[in-house]
Amino acid sequence: MGSKETGPVAVVMGSDSDLNVMQGCVEQLREFGIEPAVRILSAHRTPQAAAEFAQTAEARGVKVIIAAAGMAAHLAGAMAAWSTLPVIGVPLVGGEGGPAGLDALLSTVQMPPGVPVATVALGKAGAKNAAILAVQILALADASLREKLVQFKKRQEQKVREKDAALQ
After folding, report:
1. Domain boundaries, the chain
2. Phi, psi at residue 86, to the nearest 5°?
3. Which of 25, 48, 46 is nearest to 35 (CA)?
4. Multiple choice CATH, 9-142, 3.40.50.1970, 3.20.20.140, 3.40.50.300, 3.30.420.40
5. What are the helix and strand counts (H, E) for the chain?
6. What is the DSSP letter of 17?
7. CA end-to-end span of the chain, whole Å?
8. Is pLDDT of 2 > 60?
9. Is 88 left (phi over 0), alpha (psi -120 to 50) or beta?
């Protein structure tokens, strides 16, 4: 899916069951020419490894961390607790019979003062938006990425105009 080595964006997820949803995030980053570091880390099952990853991310060249998890969804918060890098949380729908992602959404968005996590929508839409938000953050210091974002927005506009024209 991605590199275990470093890139400007790290995509971490709590379980391999999250790979299907987060593939859209990785693909969206690649469309902007970014090959992310992709890892499976758990705030609960591998807390030491998650902490070490967050603590050393900046030294490895990571500039933005995207963290996805379902159910209790503490991964983004754990990344933010151990790093000063921007963290984008992607809440995911958890196991069967759960509250359809509401638990993950609240766990991701309800961070205490001083430990911010930017939170996007649930699931696949959120995964793609997390990638775009990461690119927007990086584009603040990268004119090439800024131009790619401008072109991306133009393509989106054109697609909508074409769909509208097809209805007329």
Report:
1. 9-142
2. -65, 135
3. 25
4. 3.40.50.1970
5. 6, 5
6. G
7. 41
8. no
9. beta
d(CA 51, CA 63): 16
Report the alpha-carbon distance of residue 118 to residue 136 in Å, rounded: 13
- Using the 8-state DSSP alphabet, how is residue 154 labeled? H
CA distance 146 to 137: 10
Q: Assess whether pLDDT exceeds 70 at residue 14.
A: yes
Residue 69 backbone phi and psi in degrees, to 5 = -160, 155
Query: How many angstroms from the chain centroid is the CA of residue 1?
Result: 14
Q: What is the pLDDT of residues 67-111, one digit of tens each?
A: 999 987 899 999 999 999 999 999 999 876 668 889 999 999 999
Cα three-residue angle 38-103-25, rounded to 5 degrees = 25
What predicted TM-score, i.e. pTM, was given to this entire model?
0.94
Residue 7's pLDDT band, with cuts at 50, 70 and 90, is confident
Find all residues with CB under 8 Å of 12, minimum gap 6, and list them: 38, 39, 40, 41, 50, 53, 65, 66, 67, 68, 75, 79
Radius of gyration of the chain (CA): 16
